[in-house]
Amino acid sequence: MQRVLRGPRGNWGVSGGCHLLAAPPLPNIPAELGSGLGRLGQALKDQLPTWGGGWGGWTPPGMPPGPRPPEEADVVVVGGGVVGWSVAYWLKVLEGQRHGMRVLVVERDPTYSRASTVLSVGGIRQQFSLPENIRMSRFSASFLRDINEHLGVPNEPPIDIQFQPSGYLFLATPQGAAGLEATVRLQREEGARVALLSPAQLKAKFPWMDTEDVAVASYGLEDEGWFDPWTLLNAFRRKAASLGVHSCAGDVRGFVTSAEDAMPRRGLAPATARIKYVHIHMPDSLEYQPVACAIVVNAAGAWAGELLRAAGLPGGLAEPPLPIQPRKRYVYSWHCPDGPGFSCPLLVDTTGAYFRRDGIAGNYLGGMSPPEEEEPDPGDLSVDHDFFQERVWPRLARRVPAFASLRPRGAWAGYYDHNAFDRNGVLGPHPKLENLFLAAGFSGHGLQHAPAAGRAVAELVVKGRYESLDLRRLGWRRLVEGEPLGEDGVV
Ligand SMILES: Cc1cc2nc3c(=O)[nH]c(=O)nc-3n(C[C@H](O)[C@H](O)[C@H](O)COP(=O)(O)OP(=O)(O)OC[C@H]3O[C@@H](n4cnc5c(N)ncnc54)[C@H](O)[C@@H]3O)c2cc1C
Fold first, then answer.
1. In angstroms, what is the span from residue 161 Cα to ligand 1's centroid?
2. Which domain of life is it from (predicted)?
């Protein structure tokens, strides 16, 4: 195997989520005119509402200005990632009475520098092993196909999520073959178009691949590929805002519940309670803004568990803890002029390593989840480049001999919204906080499931039951009863 052609460390720029706008060069303004303009600018700034210096004075596109949240909202959605905005959008679609429901989305970081949505690799597939996950993918694929009918805004440019149709290709060894075949049977029963390929068929279709240890492969024929997550997030935000959803920058740090009223009388926290106020910590300030609300949706992604832990809930109201936590995942990018061409699928290797092409100019993206005992410290989003060199690259170069020689281009890290209980989303009402709904814990497949999950939770809130998809099994009950739902297809 040749040595990997590797640039100096400095070339491995961390890229991804934070969409920074380069400032245009300043004209050469004479000093006096410059200071006059400065004073005018300051006077205008003083008149206009701002997000405060904590957000760099930059108002992200689509976020209506306004320094403060309202004092009341019908629904407060905590977390303005793709899931939170999807819930907000569907609430307005389903409310049935325009301007009837006041929905507020609270996001603590409007630059989205750590949000999973914008740090993901944008994939959608039908190949899951849990029927609910397949159904959500099918719903989302149909939603994305007609995205302009759903999220188009009159007089705004049409949405182009840059969808790249391309099947996922899962490879199985002889030991894994029966399991993969059974999963494909289930996917077909659910209506997904997935082919099983023998090693000979695999070699004929993808001659650049070493198939020596492969017994069988599954290949998605429809509704699989990848798209631009940032565009989808913005499309949800823009549409939801056009339907009247409010948003504000702030960190939800606590809930005031009805338990606090009952405790002085009874001395003990009651078994169940309702959230009366959400406490929003305002950016760059010591202030808290209470927002009275009827419903709260926890769409805080990888931090959904932390939100409940930190909310200061009395008694056993926070029990059982929500087992959702941030897990750091690296995405590496490389160039290989002799690598697989346009028909390259998103390949998931027998070892768990994956890659896909990135454009059509010989660039690729890929990575691998580490074993449980080697989970990296999620404290920051620094990238471990040795992980690619020592773990990911050898596996991929074994599978694709052309990758024996490649040039690294960059890398970034993001957080999987990992549900440590069973690696599936948790949707629906909290067992003890009667007006809290959860939509989080998708464990690396929340981007593609956001359209379906948002609709499902909005149905629960507005109609009191699931109508489009029956996702009851993804509720809290399984956590309380200790009955995990399996999903083999977590990459
Ligand atoms: C490397 C990587 C690759 C991935 N690839 C895919 C893929 O190919 N396909 C796929 O479907 N999924 C993928 N995912 C997973 C997907 O990105 C997530 O499941 C999905 O984005 C979750 O969306 P979210 O809105 O719940 O979370 P986020 O996008 O993280 O949004 C949650 C938001 O809540 C905010 N927040 C948290 N706490 C608070 C609080 N207390 N107050 C106010 N705001 C708060 C955060 O700031 C954040 O912006 C990938 C993830 C990673 C990291």
1. 18
2. Eukaryota
